[in-house]
Amino acid sequence: MSDTRTTDGRLEKSDAEWRKELTPMQYAVLREKATERPFSGEYEHEHRAGTYICAGCGQTLFESDAKFDSGCGWPSFTQPALESHVDEERDISHGMVRTEVLCSKCNGHLGHVFEDGPGPTGLRYCINSAALKLQPK
Ligand SMILES: [Zn+2]
Q1: Which whole number is the average pLDDT over 26-49?
Q2: What is the Cα gyration radius of the chain?
Q3: For residues 107-136, average pLDDT
Q4: How far away, in angstroms, is 119 Cα from ligand 1 center?
Q5: Interval between CA 18 and ligand 1 midpoint (Å)
Q6: Are the C-beta atoms of 64 and 79 separated by less than 8 Å?
Q7: Is 54 a catalytic residue?
């Protein structure tokens, strides 16, 4: 844990330390902003009740209550568990204008948010399974 620094509640680690702690898939998504193949992630069809935490730092990100079947191939949520636990940034990579969703604690890449969701928020948080860990209730 010698490389771990916390500033303003944020968690900072060296790339070497992240590589050691994360699986290659988790590292690719969280630290290199990779996107797992659609319909491949372990939580896409997950229906157990529980809390989804960040695979990088353990911060609470989404509640299973907000999860819905979007058919897009990734776990989808209508809202984060706490607004302050996710950061949103404009992403213009791959020739698209999208809003990137990041963990506010470790700055890990989670996925993107789109404005075509159901319900009161109208939002669809499209999140990589590899960025999440479910803690079943
Ligand atoms: Zn995190």
Answers
A1: 96
A2: 14
A3: 96
A4: 26
A5: 11
A6: no
A7: no
| Paired strand residues for 112 | 100, 126
- Give me ligand 1 centre to Cα 58, in Å: 6
Residue 3's pLDDT is 60
Domain ranges of the chain: 5-136
- Tell me the residues surrounding ligand 1 (ion) with CB < 5 Å: 54, 56-57, 59, 103, 105-106, 108
Distance 56 CA to ligand 1 centre (A): 5
What does pTM read for this prediction?
A: 0.93
Q: 128: closest CA among 67, 56, 23, 37?
A: 37
Residue 2 pLDDT exceeds 70? no
- Total residue length of the chain: 137
Please tell me the distance from the alpha carbon of residue 102 to that of residue 57, in angstroms, as a whole number: 12
CATH hierarchy code of domain 5-136: 2.170.150.20
